[in-house]
């Protein structure tokens, strides 16, 4: 029971911080402005809005750079990639682009999907291209640095038999940057 309480405490510390309402507030504003996801492109719209509100603005900007939000997320972000804690210039540049360009672009793309605006395909191409470029720079910078900012792996190449290697390298670093 004590172990369960310590796990619960780890995940619930700082949950009362109002900054944690940022993604929910953004979602509500987008729903008011553009409407709820519907129609044939409903799932693309949901993914686009999730990217804007949760990934680009909240996780990358607020949790990753500002170090605010649920304490466990801030701790894990620094553990997953030391470049966040060190405020590496390349990562900070990519994050600024995600927060100030990608987040708003995804919201505009969501609006274009919901209102079937003529520039929807243009926003899809621009947003996807910027996302791909950022991911390539982010990943290859770490590759050229010899993966020194990732958590210490048990073996190289990372195995599929050790949980830390599977989670931190294959799931978070490889899959999370696709």
Automatic annotation (TrEMBL):
Membrane topology according to the record: Multi-pass membrane protein
Subcellular location: Membrane
Hydrolase recorded as keyword: no
Main location: membrane
PANTHER family to which the protein is assigned, alphabetical: 3-BETA-HYDROXYSTEROID-DELTA(8),DELTA(7)-ISOMERASE (PTHR14207:SF0), STEROL ISOMERASE (PTHR14207)
The keyword Transmembrane is assigned to this record: yes
Signal peptide region: none
Transmembrane spans: none
Family: Belongs to the EBP family.
Family annotation (Pfam families): EBP
InterPro entries cross-referenced by the UniProt entry: EBP, EXPERA
Limits of the EXPERA domain: 40-178
Protein's name in the database: 3-Beta-hydroxysteroid-delta(8), delta(7)-isomerase
GO BP of this protein: cholesterol biosynthetic process
Organism: Paramuricea clavata (Red gorgonian)
GO molecular function: C-8 sterol isomerase activity; cholestenol delta-isomerase activity; steroid Delta-isomerase activity
GO CC term, one of those recorded: endoplasmic reticulum
Keyword annotations: Isomerase, Lipid biosynthesis, Lipid metabolism, Membrane, Steroid biosynthesis, Steroid metabolism, Sterol biosynthesis, Sterol metabolism, Transmembrane, Transmembrane helix
């Amino acid at each position: 029971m004590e172990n369960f309480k310590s796990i619960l405490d780890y995940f619930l510390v700082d949950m009362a911080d109002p900054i944690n309402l940022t993604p929910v507030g953004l979602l509500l504003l987008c729903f008011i402005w553009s409407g709820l996801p519907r129609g044939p492109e409903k799932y693309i719209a949901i993914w686009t809005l999730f990217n804007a509100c949760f990934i680009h603005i909240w996780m990358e900007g607020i949790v990753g750079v500002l170090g605010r939000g649920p304490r466990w997320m801030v701790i894990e972000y620094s553990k997953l990639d030391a470049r966040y804690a060190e405020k590496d210039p390349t990562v900070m540049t990519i994050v600024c682009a995600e927060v100030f360009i990608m987040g708003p672009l995804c919201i505009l793309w969501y609006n274009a999907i919901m209102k079937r605006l003529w520039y929807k395909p243009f926003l899809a191409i621009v947003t996807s291209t910027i996302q791909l470029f950022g991911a390539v720079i982010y990943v290859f910078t770490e590759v050229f640095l010899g993966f020194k900012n990732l958590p210490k792996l048990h073996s190289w190449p990372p195995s599929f038999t050790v949980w830390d290697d599977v989670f931190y390298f294959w799931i978070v670093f490889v899959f999370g940057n696709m």
